[in-house]
Amino acid sequence: MIPSGENNSDQTPVRNNKDPVKEIVWLIRRLMQGSYLYNKELNKKYQVSAPQLSSLLALYENGPLPPSQIAKYIMVNSSTVTGIIDRLEQKGLVQRSRISTDRRVITVTLTDKGRELAEHAPPPIQEKIVDGLQKLPPNEIEKIVQALTKLTYMLDVQDLEVDQIS
After folding, report:
1. Contact present, 84 and 51 (Cβ < 8 Å)
2. pLDDT tens-digit profile of 39-90?
């Protein structure tokens, strides 16, 4: 493993652990901890969660959207995005409106306060992952996909309802 703050020249982790199973578990825990710490910092500094920030950024980048489109952009179920929008609305960061002739269609729009936050907030953690993956050759990306697919099946999470990125 790379000790905190140290890298070798090709960004490949230095393996110190002799037991690869323990190393995998440690790396998974480290990923989970990184996500937790990122979310904690967002809450502390900006009073929003990672899904809330992702929603704000989706609106900032795409303009007003119905909740179902926000759900697709941030890869959550439509029912989940309702609670996210509720909390963002309570914080004065978004507002719901009915601008369609179909009164059932709700559109979510950033407020000035929400736009300000979206302009100054850090990028979502998945953006770091995407940036890093884009630097890898296709064969390495495929190996990562295969390994993560195996892990999801081991954890029995392959059937969770998560919208695909289109």
Report:
1. yes
2. 898 899 999 999 999 999 999 999 999 999 999 999 898 889 999 999 999 9
* pLDDT tens per residue across span 99-132: 777 777 899 999 999 999 999 988 878 788 889 9
Q: What 8-state DSSP symbol labels residue 95?
A: E
Q: Are 89 and 67 in contact (CB under 8 A)?
A: no
Residue 28 shares a structural domain with residue 83: no
Separation of alpha carbons 108 and 89, rounded Å: 9
Both tokens of residue 107? 């559109």
pLDDT in tens, 47-56: 999 999 999 9
In which residue are the tokens 């995998």 written? 24
Whether residue 136 lies inside any domain: the answer is: yes
- d(CA 100, CA 74) in angstroms, rounded, equals 23
CATH number at residue 85: 1.10.10.10
Domain of 66 in residue numbering reads as 50-120
